[in-house]
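dumping this here before i forget
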Amino acid sequence: MTAVQERRAASPIPSETDYNTLAKTFRPIFSDIAEGVVQRERDHVLPYEQIDALKKAGFGAIRVPTSHGGFGASIPQLFRLLVELAAADSNVTQALRGHFAFVEDRLVAAEGVDRDLWLQRFVEGQLVGNAWTEIGDVALGEANTKVSPSPDGDHFLANGAKYYSTGSIFADWIDLYSQRTDTGAFVIAAVDARQPGVTHSDDWNGFGQQTTGSGTSTYENAVVRPENIFDFSTRFKYQTAFYQLFHLATLAGIARAATDATAARVAARTRTFSHGNAPTYAQDAQIQQVVGEVSAAAHAAEAIAIHAAEPAQWAYEAAFGSDPDEEKAANIAAEIASARGQIASTSLVVPATAKIFDALGASGVDRCWGLDRFWRNARTVASHNPVVFKAKVVGDYEINGTEPTYVWAIGTARNDTEDQS
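structure:
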């Protein structure tokens, strides 16, 4: 048995029975969330109540060990649950993306009072939002958002603005990517989201994911305690893969919900076409074929999401080991698996959510059904991290053995003709 196998044998992924027990706790809440999803989409109502129900049920502590009061779920179990949640409302899954990434970072942090305090906060229901993407003309690889020591040296002050502040409008804390003015180091500042120096705006203008609250957040001398400044170089190493797994779970949930909604509309339809293939619409073989193809895409997308999460569990376990080669191999596996998953799921789910209208005719585009949300949300999710770059990364790895880029950024590209001195 290899060192990797020994490590995994010592920390097995919990059984299917454990997952069903876990899922039963949250499925009634998922059902309630699904009830109003069409109206929230239509009227642009942010899911404050729905996220609050998840908070009170302890959903944010899914990954916290049972020894610290959480549910102790594995990474694959977390993403299975997120597929179910995304089937109810994919925007809620997206809104929680930053929270679970910050939880993961605290899970692999050094043991101690500070780590335990964060785990306790998660168990109490406190949520964390995400604010990394700069607004405006920021150079690639730089951060305009700064944290500076206060004049008395007692704390830090955060100043700047972020876009795509996913989940921050619902959160108690914000995972703020920034740069220290005293040392120049890039850091994560855990910012109290409800202090006077922090402002949230619901100004995300995308045609999909309209109720994720992923708009602008601004920071004007927002106070950050010294113990809540984390050097970015210590961030958990499989973070990019982990973030991408959220998109895979979201796509899978969208496809599942699209299948269910389309099948229900076909089954309820009383009108048919004179040039159809059966006396009732639900018995028409061609319509059945369309729904079957969408269902197959949903099934495949869910399998991809769950399978892609397994290397991330290995990377999590390897983070506690003493073998740097194993940890490196696990991190590469996690990144490549999530990239492959994005390529495959995008090619399945985006077309499938457009195909549903082939099964419904013109009545399917009635705004009252809100069926367009599936394509809009899927297309938006699939656009966050350009899939063409993921395909390039996987291809380079397969051909040349090139390691993937673990952390990437977006910004204004530097002109190659500029003075490089």
